[in-house]
Amino acid sequence: MVDVDQVLDEAGLKNPHVREFVAYWAQVTGADAIEVVSAEDDERLLQESLEAGELLPVSGGRYYSRSYFKDTARSEERTVVATSKESDKGVYNNWKPAEETVATLTERMRGASKGKTMYVIPYLMAPQGSPLEAYAAGVELTDSRPVVQQMIRMARVGVDYINELKDQSSFVRAVHVTGDLPNLGQGTPDDQRLFATVADQRTILHFGSSYGGNALLGKIAHGLRQACYDGKDSEVFLAEQFLLLGITDKQTGKKFHVVGGFPSASGKTNLSMTLAPDALGDRYYVEFYGDDIAWLWVGDDGRIWAFNPENGVFGVAKDTNEASNPGAVEAIKPGSGAIFTNVAYNPETQDVWWEGKTKNPPEDVTGWLDWKGNPIADRTPEQADEPWAHPNSRFTAPISMVPNAAEDYNNPAGVPVDAIIFGGRTRDREPLIRAITDIAEGVYDGLTLGAEATFAAEGVDGQLRYDPMSMRPFMAYSEGEYAAHWLHIIGRASQPPIFAHVNWFQRDPEDGHFLWPGYRENVRALLWLLQFKAGEVKGQETAVGVIPTQDELNLDGLDLPQEDLDRILSIDVERWRQEIEFREEHLKQFDGLPEEIWAAHRRVAEALERAAQA
Ligand code: GTP
Ligand code: SPV
Ligand code: MN
C-alpha cells in the first residue's frame, strides 16, 4: 500500500478534504503509487512518457499520442448525468440515479489501476480570482500520464489552487480510470465504459477511455456538465459550449465581444482564432478568448459577462492549414509543445500529417504510419482511399501559444458580451446570418439549433439532429428548466446582448459546393451584426429574424457568384414552414418548457404563414 499521507505531505497538499478524497480512491483503484502534479512538472512528465513510449517525438519539441483504435471520440450513449432527484431527468442527459451509478463505477474502478501510478491533478477552470471561482476548483485523479500532460495544457494546474480555497470542501471530485481498453467491449451490448457526472455530489467518475472529452475531466465533464448544473443550482450563471472572441474596430477604437454556440466540430475553433479578411484587416482585429466553453453571468452593470474557463485549445486537426486557420498553425508550430492525437505520424522524420494539412498527402510515403500505426506503404489498393488521420484527430496547445490570444484572456473579471450567436452545419434553409432582438426568440432559436452530425461524437455523419444551444451532449438537467434558467439569466440583464443565427455551411443543391467561402470571411457576417445592433444598418425583416441586405454586407475584396449570394441572403419560406413542424415535435419532448418559448415559436410560425400568403 502507498503511504498516501506521506506523498501528500511531500507535495504540500494541505486541503484536508482533498486528502481524504485522494486516500479513498487510492484504496479503491489499487494504484501502486501516487503523484501530485503541477504545471511545472510538464517537462519531466513528457520525458517520462517519451521513455515509456506513451508519447512519440514530433520535431521541434512536440509530441504524438496514438489512442486505442476504438477510443477516438466521446461516446454519448455511455455518458450519463446522475443525481438523487428524478426531476433532473431530461431528454438528452441520460439521467441515472446517483446511488446506483456511484456503486457501479466504484466496482468497475476497484483494483483497475493496479500496477499504475495515480496522478493527482489539482486544477482551476477559471482565471484565478474570478467571480465564479467557487464553482471552478477541482481535483482530477487519473491513471494516465498523457491525460496529465493534456490537462496541464487545458486547465490551470497546481496545488495552490486547492490549498487556498476559501471553502476547502468546495471542489469537484473527478476520478478517471482508463481500464483495460482492448477488453471493454466498446460498442457491444456488454460495453463496460461509463462516464458519469454525479452532479448533485459534484463528483465525476469516468471509466473506460483515454480520449479527450472522456478523460480530461476538467474540460467537458466539469467545465460543461457539472458547471451547467451548478449554474442552475446557484441561479448565478450559464456554462455553455461556446466560443468567445473579441473584435476591435481600429478606426473607432471600439471593442465588441461575441460568444457562439456551434455543435462539436462545427467551426468554433476556426472562428475564434480567425483573422479579419485581408481586405478588412487594416480596420478590424479579431482576438481569441476561447474556442469551446464560456461561463456567463449578469454583471453589476446589467450586462452579460463571460470568460473562458479553459487554459488551452483541444482543436480538430482535419483541414487545419495556413488558409483555414493560420492561428492554429502558429499555435502548434515547432517549439509550441503541442500534443497531436491520432493524426498520421512519421517516426523517421518525426513529422505529422492530417487530411487538409496540405492539399495532397506527402508524396514520399516512406516511414509514414496512419493513425492506427499501420504503414501507408503497405496499403492495398482498396485501402488507398482511407484517411491517414482519424477524422476526429486533434491537437492540444495552451492559449498562450495562440497568436491572436487577447491580452486580457486571463482577466478574472471576464468581458462584456455584445452578441450571442448560434450556428450549425446546415446544408439548406439557414441563411448566412439572421439577427434576433427579442430575448425569448433568441433563446427559442438556441433551443432549436440543428446541425448535421459530425465525427466528434460517435454517430452518423451527415444526419440532421437538434442540438439545443450546442449543449445536447453536455446538458446536465431537464431542457424545460434549462430554457427557464436562460430566460432568467439573460432576462436579468438591463443591457442584454443581441442574438443571431449563423450558417457557414449552406450548399448548392445541385453540385454541393459551399455557397459561402467561410473561415476568415465569416467575420463579415459578425461585423454586419454589430452594425445592426448599433443601429447603423437596418437589414431586411423576415419571419425568422433580420437578415442583411446585399449592400449592407461588406463584401470588399470578395468575389461571390450572384446566385450564391442571393441564396444565402434569402429565406426559403416553404422549407421553413416544414422546419416549424419538426421544431414543434422537437420542443414537445421537453417537459415544462416555459410559455415564453412556446409563444416565440408561435410568433415565428405565424409570421411564416403570413409570408407564405404574401
Ligand atoms: P469541437 O472542438 O468539437 O467542439 O469543435 P469546433 O466547433 O471547435 O470545430 P472546429 O472549429 O475545429 O471545426 C471543425 C471543422 O469544421 C474543421 O474541419 C473545419 O475545417 C471546418 N470549418 C470550420 N469553419 C468552417 C467554415 O467557415 N466553412 C467550412 N466549409 N468549414 C469550416
Ligand atoms: C467536443 O467534442 O465538443 C470537443 C472535444 O470539444 S472533447 O473535449 O473531446 O469533448
Ligand atoms: Mn466542443
UniProtKB/TrEMBL annotation:
Belongs to the phosphoenolpyruvate carboxykinase [GTP] family. This is Phosphoenolpyruvate carboxykinase [GTP]. InterPro entries: PEP_carboxykinase_C, PEP_carboxykinase_GTP, PEP_carboxykinase_GTP_C, PEP_carboxykinase_GTP_N, PEP_carboxykinase_N. The keyword Nucleotide-binding applies. The active site is at residue 266. Pfam families: PEPCK_GTP (PF00821), PEPCK_N (PF17297). Its main location: cytoplasm. One of its GO terms (molecular function) is phosphoenolpyruvate carboxykinase (GTP) activity. Monomer. GTP binds at residues 265-270, 394, 425, 519-522. The keyword Cell inner membrane does not apply. Catalyzes the conversion of oxaloacetate (OAA) to phosphoenolpyruvate (PEP), the rate-limiting step in the metabolic pathway that produces glucose from lactate and other precursors derived from the citric acid cycle. It is found in: Cytoplasm. Its EC number is 4.1.1.32. It is an enzyme of class 4 (lyase). Keywords: Cytoplasm, Decarboxylase, Gluconeogenesis, GTP-binding, Lyase, Manganese, Metal-binding, Nucleotide-binding. It catalyses: oxaloacetate + GTP = phosphoenolpyruvate + GDP + CO2.
